[in-house]
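Take a protein:
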Amino acid sequence: MVGQRERRLMRDSAAAIHAALPGSDLEIVDGCGHGIPLQRPEWFNATVSAWLHQE
């Protein structure tokens, strides 16, 4: 998960981690920078909760 407004280095790093981890998901969050949990708390909490409760 990386904000679309995050620095290029962070977006590139997230893409590299995703490429190195088969089966991973990469979520680029529109309109957000580094503070996704503070900028979109309801969305962030729902997304993380759904991920934690996957089977």
About this structure: The helical segments are 8-20, 36-39, 41-52. The mean pLDDT is 95. DSSP finds three helices and two strands in the chain.
